[in-house]
# Entry
Amino acid sequence: MVLKCSTCGVNLIGQSKFVKFQCPNCSETTIIRCYQCKKNANPYECEKCKFRGP
# Structure
C-alpha cells in the first residue's frame, strides 16, 4: 500500500499526523496531506479534476 503526501510526496507509512479526504470538487480522488504541508497550507492538486486547494 502506498501512502504518501499529495503535495510533497513524503512517505506517510508509520506516521499518525496526516489527513486524508476526498477532493472537495469531484469527490473521486483521495487527497492525503502530511502534517507539515497542512500546517504550512501548501497547495495540493486533484489528479482527476485539477482542483487546487490550500
User: Anything to note?
Assistant: The chain has one helix and four strands. Residues 35-39 form the longest helix (5 residues).
